[in-house]
Amino acid sequence: MTSSLTVRSLSVRFHLPGATVHAVSDASFAVRQGECLALVGESGCGKSVMAHALMGLLPGNATVAGSAWLRTGGAPPLDLIAAPERVLARTVRGRRIGLVPQSPAAHLTPVRTARAQLVEALRELGNPAPADELAARAGLAPAQLDRYPHQLSGGMAQRVVNAIALAGDPWLIIADEPTSGLDRPLVDATMTELRRLADDGRAVLLITHDLRAAEQVADHIAVMYASRVVSLAPAAEFFAGPRHPYAAGLLEALPSRGFTPIPGRPPELTDLPAGCAFLPRCDRSTAACSHLPEAGTEPSRVACHHPLEHHVAR
Ligand SMILES: Nc1ncnc2c1ncn2[C@@H]1O[C@H](COP(=O)(O)OP(=O)(O)OP(=O)(O)O)[C@@H](O)[C@H]1O
Ligand code: NI
């Protein structure tokens, strides 16, 4: 059986005094063996919260609903949302799923060298591979590993956490902005490495603002807007002509496509409308849009009452 992660109707709420943050709403998608799914969307739309929900890393004021079934060869299927913390800690985090955290510097211990932290991860996860080898794959020279976190540039710290995420040889790699602070050649190298991991029979969930990087590596593109996955499409289709007006807007905002920003701002996640959250920014909206659009069906899903036509030959 093909290994996969299948997320169904995942919702995450944060309870604050006097307000509820709707960080992830009714998200469904799958990542299969050999595939890379890129998750894109503006800052604050819920991408990292989704990653943390899958890893069991949400804070105490969060409630989670839905399911996320992890099926990988040999091990019994596991619903990451229902699984006890003990099981996630012992069998999932670092082992079946490796997370590249979004803020590398915050995840490194200041008083120990990068090497000490990578060696510890390898030992804990029972991986006999030499630290230098893992580091080299992440684009780090052995001498750079001997530095303390404050002696690392942002790009080097990024590469250290990328290497640590792979220390347990995980089946799924969730990479949350793995290229922030990296220059183009290192972005390309990181994407090549992620592609290699997927091609080796693993799976990659890439969270990124960098659509150009996503285009290099992803098989499918999921777009989040205001806590919802509003579009999910094969990458070739997405880049040829996205059907969701928000997805189209994201592409038009790229420097290579004219740099036209989407006017307006996303709504507050404490105060989401009942209908389409993109309505106030959308030039295709009608009265129908005050009702929530259906999520659509795979392989090319578009949660919109008035999707754009696309002209890709099927
Ligand atoms: N512990 C928390 N308590 C309350 N709200 C939170 C908490 N953690 C995250 N949020 C809120 O959840 C929303 C989604 O945040 P998230 O970090 O997932 O965004 P993101 O899509 O990853 O953005 P970026 O691209 O900037 O990383 C934000 O509005 C954020 O303020
Ligand atoms: Ni984030």
From TrEMBL:
It is a peripheral membrane protein. InterPro entries: AAA+_ATPase, ABC_Ni/Peptide_Import, ABC_transporter-like_ATP-bd, Oligopep_ABC_C, P-loop_NTPase. Its main location: membrane. The keyword NADP does not apply. Its EC number is 7.2.2.11. Residues 7-251 form the ABC transporter domain. It catalyses: Ni(2+)(out) + ATP + H2O = Ni(2+)(in) + ADP + phosphate + H(+). CDD domains: ABC_NikE_OppD_transporters. It comes from the Bacteria. GO terms for cellular component: plasma membrane. It holds the Pfam family ABC_tran. Signal peptide: none annotated. Keywords: ATP-binding, Cell membrane, Ion transport, Membrane, Nickel, Nickel transport, Nucleotide-binding, Translocase, Transport. The keyword Ion transport applies. It is found in: Cell membrane. GO terms for molecular function: ABC-type nickel transporter activity; ATP binding; ATP hydrolysis activity. GO terms for biological process: peptide transport. NCBIfam families: oligo_HPY (TIGR01727). The complex is composed of two ATP-binding proteins (NikD and NikE), two transmembrane proteins (NikB and NikC) and a solute-binding protein (NikA). Belongs to the ABC transporter superfamily. PANTHER family: NICKEL ABC TRANSPORTER, ATP-BINDING PROTEIN (PTHR43297:SF13), OLIGOPEPTIDE TRANSPORT ATP-BINDING PROTEIN APPD (PTHR43297). This is Nickel import system ATP-binding protein NikD. It comes from Acrocarpospora macrocephala.
